[in-house]
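Run Thioredoxin family protein through structure prediction, thanks.
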Amino acid sequence: MTRIIGLMLLAGLLAACSVDPDSSGKALPVKGQAMPIFKMGTLDGKLVDSHNLFAGKVIILNVWATWCPPCRKEMPDLIRLSRLLPANKFIVVGLAADNQAEDVRKFIEEKHVSFPIYWDKGGKQLAGPQLGVFKYPETFIINRRGVYLEKIMGGFPWASPITVRILNTIYNTGKIPEQSSAGTPGAR
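Sure, done. The structure for Thioredoxin family protein is below.
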Protein backbone atom coordinates (compact mmCIF):
# COMPACT_ATOMS: atom_id res chain seq x y z
CA MET A 1 0.00 0.00 0.00
CA THR A 2 2.82 2.41 0.90
CA ARG A 3 4.52 1.63 -2.40
CA ILE A 4 1.36 2.40 -4.37
CA ILE A 5 0.93 5.74 -2.59
CA GLY A 6 4.60 6.53 -3.26
CA LEU A 7 4.21 5.75 -6.96
CA MET A 8 1.07 7.88 -7.16
CA LEU A 9 2.88 10.81 -5.52
CA LEU A 10 5.82 10.41 -7.90
CA ALA A 11 3.47 10.33 -10.91
CA GLY A 12 1.75 13.47 -9.61
CA LEU A 13 5.06 15.29 -9.16
CA LEU A 14 6.24 14.34 -12.64
CA ALA A 15 2.98 15.53 -14.16
CA ALA A 16 3.13 18.81 -12.20
CA CYS A 17 6.71 19.50 -13.35
CA SER A 18 6.10 18.84 -17.04
CA VAL A 19 5.31 21.59 -19.50
CA ASP A 20 3.11 21.05 -22.53
CA PRO A 21 4.77 22.95 -25.39
CA ASP A 22 1.51 22.93 -27.33
CA SER A 23 -0.41 24.73 -24.58
CA SER A 24 0.90 28.10 -25.76
CA GLY A 25 1.37 27.18 -29.38
CA LYS A 26 5.11 27.73 -28.96
CA ALA A 27 7.85 25.12 -28.75
CA LEU A 28 10.06 25.25 -25.68
CA PRO A 29 13.82 25.72 -26.16
CA VAL A 30 15.78 22.52 -26.83
CA LYS A 31 19.48 22.25 -25.93
CA GLY A 32 21.70 22.07 -28.98
CA GLN A 33 19.11 23.71 -31.23
CA ALA A 34 18.46 27.30 -32.24
CA MET A 35 16.81 29.28 -29.48
CA PRO A 36 13.27 30.16 -30.57
CA ILE A 37 12.84 33.81 -31.47
CA PHE A 38 10.65 35.65 -28.98
CA LYS A 39 9.64 39.18 -28.07
CA MET A 40 10.54 40.74 -24.74
CA GLY A 41 8.77 43.70 -23.19
CA THR A 42 10.63 46.74 -21.96
CA LEU A 43 9.60 48.34 -18.68
CA ASP A 44 7.87 50.99 -20.82
CA GLY A 45 5.75 48.38 -22.62
CA LYS A 46 7.61 48.28 -25.96
CA LEU A 47 8.36 44.90 -27.54
CA VAL A 48 11.89 43.97 -28.62
CA ASP A 49 12.66 41.07 -30.94
CA SER A 50 15.22 38.71 -29.36
CA HIS A 51 16.87 37.94 -32.70
CA ASN A 52 17.71 41.59 -33.37
CA LEU A 53 18.93 42.23 -29.83
CA PHE A 54 21.12 39.14 -29.55
CA ALA A 55 22.54 38.76 -33.08
CA GLY A 56 26.19 37.68 -33.10
CA LYS A 57 26.73 37.70 -29.33
CA VAL A 58 26.94 35.08 -26.61
CA ILE A 59 23.84 35.62 -24.50
CA ILE A 60 23.48 35.15 -20.76
CA LEU A 61 19.69 35.40 -20.34
CA ASN A 62 18.77 35.49 -16.66
CA VAL A 63 15.10 34.94 -15.75
CA TRP A 64 14.53 36.29 -12.25
CA ALA A 65 12.23 38.19 -9.89
CA THR A 66 12.83 40.93 -7.32
CA TRP A 67 11.06 38.91 -4.59
CA CYS A 68 13.32 35.87 -5.11
CA PRO A 69 16.18 35.68 -2.52
CA PRO A 70 18.58 33.61 -4.73
CA CYS A 71 17.93 36.05 -7.60
CA ARG A 72 18.77 39.03 -5.43
CA LYS A 73 21.89 37.27 -4.16
CA GLU A 74 23.30 36.53 -7.63
CA MET A 75 22.50 39.93 -9.15
CA PRO A 76 25.77 41.62 -8.05
CA ASP A 77 27.70 38.83 -9.80
CA LEU A 78 25.68 39.30 -13.00
CA ILE A 79 26.37 43.05 -12.84
CA ARG A 80 30.12 42.35 -12.45
CA LEU A 81 29.99 39.82 -15.31
CA SER A 82 28.32 42.35 -17.61
CA ARG A 83 31.18 44.76 -16.92
CA LEU A 84 33.91 42.11 -17.36
CA LEU A 85 32.77 40.89 -20.77
CA PRO A 86 33.31 42.90 -23.98
CA ALA A 87 29.94 44.31 -25.13
CA ASN A 88 30.70 43.57 -28.79
CA LYS A 89 30.89 39.82 -28.02
CA PHE A 90 28.57 39.22 -25.06
CA ILE A 91 25.29 40.44 -23.62
CA VAL A 92 23.91 39.83 -20.16
CA VAL A 93 20.14 40.29 -20.21
CA GLY A 94 17.61 40.07 -17.40
CA LEU A 95 14.00 39.03 -17.80
CA ALA A 96 12.09 40.01 -14.66
CA ALA A 97 8.97 37.96 -13.91
CA ASP A 98 7.53 40.36 -11.32
CA ASN A 99 3.88 41.35 -11.33
CA GLN A 100 4.65 45.09 -11.13
CA ALA A 101 7.06 46.96 -13.40
CA GLU A 102 7.58 49.52 -10.65
CA ASP A 103 9.13 46.83 -8.41
CA VAL A 104 11.63 46.07 -11.18
CA ARG A 105 12.43 49.75 -11.79
CA LYS A 106 13.03 50.30 -8.08
CA PHE A 107 15.32 47.25 -7.86
CA ILE A 108 17.34 48.35 -10.91
CA GLU A 109 17.83 51.79 -9.40
CA GLU A 110 18.72 50.55 -5.89
CA LYS A 111 21.16 47.88 -7.10
CA HIS A 112 22.61 49.92 -9.99
CA VAL A 113 21.87 47.20 -12.53
CA SER A 114 23.89 48.11 -15.60
CA PHE A 115 22.67 45.57 -18.15
CA PRO A 116 19.36 45.46 -20.05
CA ILE A 117 16.35 44.30 -18.05
CA TYR A 118 13.10 43.31 -19.72
CA TRP A 119 9.78 42.55 -18.05
CA ASP A 120 7.35 39.66 -18.36
CA LYS A 121 4.40 40.43 -16.07
CA GLY A 122 4.20 37.52 -13.64
CA GLY A 123 6.23 35.34 -16.01
CA LYS A 124 3.00 34.57 -17.85
CA GLN A 125 3.77 35.60 -21.44
CA LEU A 126 7.37 34.54 -21.97
CA ALA A 127 9.13 33.00 -18.95
CA GLY A 128 6.63 30.22 -18.33
CA PRO A 129 4.92 29.42 -21.61
CA GLN A 130 7.80 30.07 -24.03
CA LEU A 131 10.93 29.41 -21.97
CA GLY A 132 9.55 26.82 -19.54
CA VAL A 133 10.78 28.72 -16.48
CA PHE A 134 8.67 28.41 -13.36
CA LYS A 135 11.37 28.60 -10.64
CA TYR A 136 13.80 31.45 -10.33
CA PRO A 137 16.53 32.19 -11.14
CA GLU A 138 17.17 30.25 -14.33
CA THR A 139 19.77 31.42 -16.82
CA PHE A 140 20.08 30.40 -20.46
CA ILE A 141 23.44 30.37 -22.23
CA ILE A 142 23.10 30.88 -25.98
CA ASN A 143 26.06 30.95 -28.36
CA ARG A 144 26.61 33.68 -30.94
CA ARG A 145 24.95 31.54 -33.62
CA GLY A 146 21.77 31.51 -31.54
CA VAL A 147 22.10 27.90 -30.33
CA TYR A 148 20.82 27.21 -26.81
CA LEU A 149 23.69 25.48 -24.99
CA GLU A 150 22.75 25.30 -21.31
CA LYS A 151 20.30 26.34 -18.63
CA ILE A 152 21.64 27.04 -15.15
CA MET A 153 19.03 26.61 -12.42
CA GLY A 154 19.54 28.53 -9.20
CA GLY A 155 22.20 31.04 -8.22
CA PHE A 156 25.63 30.82 -9.84
CA PRO A 157 29.07 32.50 -9.42
CA TRP A 158 28.79 34.44 -12.67
CA ALA A 159 31.83 36.70 -12.28
CA SER A 160 34.28 33.95 -11.31
CA PRO A 161 37.41 33.59 -13.49
CA ILE A 162 36.38 30.05 -14.49
CA THR A 163 32.94 31.22 -15.63
CA VAL A 164 34.47 34.05 -17.67
CA ARG A 165 36.93 31.58 -19.24
CA ILE A 166 34.08 29.20 -20.12
CA LEU A 167 32.08 32.03 -21.69
CA ASN A 168 35.09 33.11 -23.76
CA THR A 169 35.50 29.52 -24.95
CA ILE A 170 31.82 29.49 -25.92
CA TYR A 171 32.37 32.68 -27.91
CA ASN A 172 35.37 31.18 -29.73
CA THR A 173 34.08 27.64 -30.32
CA GLY A 174 30.31 27.83 -29.98
CA LYS A 175 30.44 25.01 -27.44
CA ILE A 176 30.74 24.50 -23.70
CA PRO A 177 34.26 23.21 -22.96
CA GLU A 178 34.58 19.64 -21.80
CA GLN A 179 35.50 18.95 -18.17
CA SER A 180 39.09 17.72 -17.87
CA SER A 181 40.27 15.18 -15.35
CA ALA A 182 41.90 18.05 -13.44
CA GLY A 183 38.50 19.64 -12.94
CA THR A 184 39.21 22.73 -15.03
CA PRO A 185 36.82 23.15 -17.95
CA GLY A 186 38.59 23.04 -21.28
CA ALA A 187 42.02 22.10 -19.87
CA ARG A 188 43.84 19.34 -21.72
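The domain at 27-173 is CATH 3.40.30.10 (Glutaredoxin).
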